Amino acid sequence: MDSPRLHTDLNGFFIEDLSVGMTAVFAKTITEADIVMFSGVTGDMNPVHVNEEFAADTMFKGRIAHGMLTASLISTVLGMKMPGPGCIYLSQDLKFLAPVRAGDTVTAKAVILDIIPEKKRIICKTTASVGDKLVCDGEAKMMVRSRQEEEAAKAASA
């Protein structure tokens, strides 16, 4: 039997490594392909996202990216950067503040607001911006692995 991999093998953080104020960022330029693929994966073919003629007559005066596509970049920050691989999303509150369009570069950011070590939980402020404009604002709760538990599991399997 293979020994269990430690969380650090995947470049994530343990609860013991985190501190209030730590920040992580991920940026991506949203493309037409991203919008089309997101529509296909989710089944959300709302014409405000996929039909230029329809969208031109809306308050946005053209097609916009799905709000959840923008919000998914927050998931990238949390799942791949901080706390990183192995963490579990428990909740996410979101407020969508402005539209995102194909060609916009979205910067998603997470900042640790609180750590609850006994429950292996962190609370993060989460945002997404295009330039200086905040397009999405929220808060996430994450479950994070413990170094002590990982090392105990590794020792038990040795």
Structural class: alpha+beta
* Strand line-up in the sheet with most strands: 1-3-4-5-2
| Low-pLDDT residue intervals, each spanning 5 or more residues | none
Helix content: 25-40%
Distance between the termini: 10 Å
What series of H and E elements makes up the topology?
Answer: EHHHHEEEEH
Shape: elongated
User: Average pLDDT, to the nearest integer?
Assistant: 92
- Beta content comes to 25-35%
Number of strand segments: 5
- What summary fits the major beta sheet? 5 strands, antiparallel
Radius of gyration, CA atoms, in whole angstroms = 19 Å
State the helix count. Answer: 5
Could you characterize the architecture of this molecule?
There is one protein chain. With 158 residues, the protein is of the alpha+beta class. 29% of the residues lie in helices and 31% in strands. It is built from five helices and five strands; from the N terminus they run βααααββββα. The chain has helices at 32-42, 47-50, 52-56, 67-81, 147-157; strands spanning 23-29, 88-96, 105-116, 121-130, 133-143. It has a five-stranded antiparallel β-sheet with strand order 1-3-4-5-2, covered by helices on one side. The longest helix has 15 residues, at 67-81. The protein is elongated and about 60 Å long. The model has no long low-confidence stretch (mean pLDDT 92).
